[in-house]
Amino acid sequence: MSPATPSSRTHKSLSMAQLALLIAGAASQGLKIGPSIVEVSPDFNSVFPFNNFNRNVSVASWQTNLLNGTSAEVNEDLEFLANATFITYDESFYELLGVNSYEDIKEIETIFTFPPPPSYAQRQIHDGTVYIPETDTIFFAELYSPKPGAYMHAIPFVWQISNASTTSATASKAYPSPALTIANGAHYHNGSVYWAQEGNWSTPGGLVRMDPFTLKTEPVQNNFYGHRFNSPNDVVVSDTGRAYFTDGYYGRDNFKDSLEPELANGVYRWDLQTGNIRMVAGAADGTLFNPNGVAFNAEQTRLFVTMRGFASGDADGGRTMFAYDITENGLANRQVFAYVDSGFPDGIKTDKDGRVYGAVTGSVDVFDEYGTLLGRIKVDKDDVAVNMVWVGDHLYIVGRNKVYRVQLNTKER
């Protein structure tokens, strides 16, 4: 058991004198700088105050390249954004943070740092964040993105954070039995954890139920009338016992660990009581290519689905959050809820007040119920937020490199 050693992070890289001097210049450029929060004005957001710039789709906004003809002075604005812990675009974001303005101090804790991946892998992916209130434990999966010429290995463990609601949270490995096969998304329902597992050449992907006390597992859904799923990614289960899960081409296209797909990728609805399964959204209607995360709103009347597209670095990639109304027949009234500017929206969560949280490169982006970007909760430099989970009024953020925790003025339901 490795003790988590929480540390708080604010904008402490500058002395107060340096900060005061730079604030005056930044304010004229449309930024308001506090100890940990940067507020971006509408003018700054609408007209980037740089002569010449460009940005790769796989990096965050504060990593925008300033090209020929841009003065060094305005570089400071991007440095402020890069060093901030929170970025505000709408004043209602302060209510969520539980502060009055950018001048207040707000902290985010670093709970745990992951060990490096094995030699055959190039980075880690952490997903499937799920909280068990009876044991005060968070579970989440670890995957390794293989280097070129390699393939994804099945991992016998998942991570757990014990005492998650306390200041003495600890991180360790847990070993489901039988082991999961490329586990990904997860949801807690009626005393069980439901995992979406990708599967591999020898094990069909699908949904696996795990007892959170004994860690015993059993497959509960692994086919669509004899077809293997492609590589299930994420799952949620409603209070009425209907599971919605995404199925994309990640296993074959990205990780080289599954059979050739024979189904369109999309969103399935599986009724735990009747066993009925049906696709309710997918590539067949021209929208969902490589769907990823799923989340209900607090009332479970809407379903949010994230989409990556073929690759997160493609300029024309998906990078989209869709919102659907949940009906007795399936899903209806699809709309583009948000299009993100950094990487692609991976994990997605909501809160009781209608906000939607998307894990992207460099931050968790927070939207109101209409899709307006309110602000960003940043992770460390060069980290990527992958997924989140609520523990009371604390939001745990699981990145590729670290686990973070921030207290917010809301909760899940």
Automatic annotation (TrEMBL):
<dbReference type="Pfam" id="PF08450">
    <property type="entry name" value="SGL"/>
</dbReference>
<feature type="signal peptide">
    <location>
        <begin position="1"/>
        <end position="28"/>
    </location>
</feature>
<keyword id="KW-0732">Signal</keyword>
<protein>
    <submittedName>
        <fullName>Gluconolactonase</fullName>
    </submittedName>
</protein>
<dbReference type="InterPro" id="IPR052988">
    <property type="entry name" value="Oryzine_lactonohydrolase"/>
</dbReference>
<dbReference type="InterPro" id="IPR011042">
    <property type="entry name" value="6-blade_b-propeller_TolB-like"/>
</dbReference>
<feature type="domain" description="SMP-30/Gluconolactonase/LRE-like region">
    <location>
        <begin position="205"/>
        <end position="396"/>
    </location>
</feature>
<dbReference type="InterPro" id="IPR013658">
    <property type="entry name" value="SGL"/>
</dbReference>
